Every structure is written in structure tokens, then in C-alpha cells.
Amino acid sequence: MSPNAGARGDWEARFEPVVCVTLTARLATATKAFCNCAVADDAAPNANTCPVCLGLPGTLPAVNAAAVQRAVDGALALGAAVQLVTGFAREHEPPDPRRPKGFTLTQRTTPLAAGGHVQIGETPEGAPIQAAVRRVYLTEDVGRADHARFAGVSALDFNLAGVPLLVVEGSPDLRAAAEVRAYVACTAALLRESGATSARPGDAGLTVVAHVAIRGRGDLRAGPACVLRGMSALDAVERAVAAECARQSAAVEGGGAVEPADLLWDATSAVSVPVRTPTAPTWSLVDPDLPPLVLTSEWVADRRDALPELPPARRARLAQTFGLSGASLDAASVDPDLAAYYETLARLHGDGPAAWRWLAEQALPFATREGLSPREIAVRARPADAARVLDLRRAGRLSDDAAAQVLRTMLRTGLEPERAAERVGVILPGR
Q1: Residue 133 Cα to chain centre, angstroms
Q2: What's the DSSP call for residue 174?
Q3: pLDDT tens digits for range 265-305
Q4: For residue 271, what are the β-bridge partners?
Q5: Are 362 and 412 in contact (CB under 8 A)?
Q6: How many CB atoms lie within 10 A of CB 262?
Q7: Contact between 366 and 398 (Cβ < 8 Å)
Q8: Which residues of 130-156 are buried (b: 16+ CB within 10 A; e: fewer)?
Q9: Looking at the DSSP assignment, which residues form a beta bridge with residue 132?
Q10: Which of 295, 291, 275, 384 is nearest to 72 (CA)?
Q11: CB neighbourhood size of 207 (10 A)
Q12: Sorting pLDDT into bands at 50, 70 and 90, what band is 9?
């Protein structure tokens, strides 16, 4: 695969991507999906294992109720319809030493929820741009192979085997690499804010698989799809999809054909490389040890009522209340802590766009350099203190440069406005 395949080029005028994304997130539970073993990333190898998750003969699994609740919360956040009666199947795949049971327990054939959508942006007229969700279901993770621990042999760590995962299968609605990036970011944010997962793009607990095809502009049918794996971070997702679209278009324009393939994205070299796909068939059967999973409509309704305010609703509220729009509105609404800080600051200052400009131009760049979270910004530059400095600047009692110096010093030191002003040699007018 060419390392330059991701460059933007003339192909975009003639071809259109058709992309479907499957996002898998580790559920935020303390124990595994079908046993009481702890979920912990820092445990010694194979410390968090038991006869159940190792698949030893005579053991019986039991569904983790917390995993079901987290999965339902995530499905509801995506607007999916939760199915009241579902089940688990044993999915047998080609032999893999990372699967101690020899199969994977999954709801893929009888998903927990179906339908739903993710809003990935707006048209210039303000209409929502949405990508559909096909299904949402529970499954379990596999162990990890370590090829460097011992010379000449591979070591297996089953601490993650049986950890509950939530799979969100999308629809082929995405038409650009930027849309794929937005879909991953928005889906992950919805799952995270619903409490289903704590994983963010780029974390080990969140993985992305993209089925990428192209078609001529104006055509209804796309060519064969290639499967891109090995992605998690947003930059990697966007670059990998763009590179694959450029590669496929170059093949078609050169008179060749796109052959379906499994590809692994190498973020270091910015190329995708083919990986060998097992030729043995995959088959499944209903698990005889797990009864059907039966939920009640009342319980599902209670879970829906318990959901916090999610990014789309927060976005609409901030737009209506403070007059934000476009990229400013996107940035202000995506993180709940940042949105809460901004909302308090904007209400105290009385000028929503001006409050956001200070955040975007000074506070957030400083936080990025220093590795500060929105909560830490709120501690160092308390909303009431920042609003006071912004008020003085608006009233002409403090110059723009003096206000900027005071606010930057507050962010850097956590000092109150008067002491921050003294440090930079600025006289702060009285109240």
C-alpha cells in the first residue's frame, strides 16, 4: 500500500466513499461478562481468571447484570430499540489460542437492540446529518498474546478473556473520511456519557473496524469493500479511510479491480498492509448453558429516564441559550465538564459568544499544553472570577492585553484575580 495514498486528490471529484463502521467498546463493569473475575488492566498476567472464563469442563456461565444494564444504557443513548427477549450463542471461529473456551459468547445473531442513529453534523441550513445504526449487542473479549516475553515462544494472558464488550454496527451511510471520524467521535461520546463505557478514541478499550468501498459519483452501487482494522484514535481512523479510498480509486482508474481484503492500518508508517484471513468457516449455535435474556418494558423505560443529558440535546440547548453555532457549538457541547464550565461562565458574564472566544483562544490551548482537564480549568480559573475579568474588559475598565495577562496567570497559578493581577503588574479596578 502506498504511503501517499491518503493524500487528497482529483479522485474525490470522480469517486465517492461508501463506508460502514463497527465500533467495539469495553463496558464499564467491575467484573467480567459471565463470571466474577475482576476487570483490571494492571493485574499480573492470568491473575484475573477462573474456571468459568477459562472454559474448563463442568463450569457454568452467568450473565453479569451490570454488563446488561450498561449495554442497554448505551443502546438507548444511540436511539436504538431494545429487544425484550434475546439470547447468547457460541460463535465458533478458526482456532485461536487467545480464546480459552474455543468459542465466543455473543449476541450477534440475536442483538440486544436494533436501529438507532448518530448525528454527525449539520447541513448549512441547520438540518441534522445522521448515520444509521443497524444493531447493538453484547459479546466478550479474548486474551492477549505476548510474543516478546519469552524467547522462542508466545505467552498467553487471559486477564481480558471474558471482559464484556459492546458492539455497535453501523450502516453504509458515511461518504467521507471526515464523516467517519465524526461518527466514531460522536458514537464514543454517546456511549461514554450514557455510562456504558469509559473508553475514548485512542484508548485500548475502544476499537474501530471500517468496511470501505468506493463508487463513481452518481452511481448507486459500490464496488467490493475492504475491511480496515487496527484503528482507535480519531486521526488514525480518518487517515486510514482516506488512504484506502485513494488506493481503491487509483486501482480502478488504472484499469484494475478492487479485490476484497482484510487490511491492518499501521499508524507509524501511515500505510495499510494485508493480513491473512482464516479460510475456515464461522458457525454458531445457541448456548445451552445460558437461558434467554428477558427484560421488561418498565425496566427499559426506567433506564431511558435515568440517562443524563446527551450531546445532541446539550448542543441544541447551548445553541438556543447562548447563540453559539458551527464549530464553536460542536466544541462547546462535546464534553460535559467543558459544557458545564462554559454555561456557568456565559451566564455570569452575559455574553455567550465572548465567553466561548476566551475559552477557545486562551483557556483550551493552555489546557492542551499543560494536560489540564476542563475540571482543572474550573478550579484554576473559577467561573465567577473569569467572568469578573471578562466583565471589566467589556466595560473598558481593563484593556484586552491586561485582561489576557490576568486570565492566563489565573490559569497557570490558580490565583484569584487580584493576586494574579499583582503578579503581572496590572491594577485591577474595584468591584
Answers
A1: 14
A2: B
A3: 988 888 888 887 666 678 899 999 999 999 999 999 999 99
A4: 266
A5: no
A6: 15
A7: no
A8: bbebbbbbbbbbbbeeeeeeeeeeeee
A9: 117
A10: 295
A11: 19
A12: low
Instruction: Report the 10 Å Cβ neighbour count for 264.
Output: 15
Question: Following CA atoms 275, 278, 281, 284 in sequence, which dihedral angle do they give, to the nearest 10 degrees?
Answer: -80
Dihedral in degrees, nearest 10, Cα atoms 374, 380, 384, 385:
-140
Smallest CA-to-CA distance from 220 within 19, 16, 21 is with 16
Amino acid at 381: A
DSSP letter at 262 equals E
Residue written as cell 479510498? 245
Answer yes or no: are the C-beta atoms of 78 and 136 closer than 8 Å: yes
Q: Which residue has the cell 494536560?
A: 371
Phi, psi of 215 (to 5 degrees): -145, 155
Kindly state the average pLDDT of the residues 88-117. Answer: 94
The amino acid at 364: L
- CA torsion sign, 238 to 118 to 137 to 220? negative
Amino acid at 301: A
Amino acid identity for residue 392 in this structure: L
CB 153 within 8 A of CB 163: no
54 vs 123: CA distance, rounded Å: 50
Side chain identity at residue 360, one-letter code: A
| Residue 150: all three cell numbers together | 519469552
Copy the grid coordinates of residue 425: 503588574
- If you count DSSP H runs as helices and E runs as strands, how many of each does the chain have, helices first? 14, 17
Indicate the residue type of 3. P
Q: What is the pTM of this model?
A: 0.87
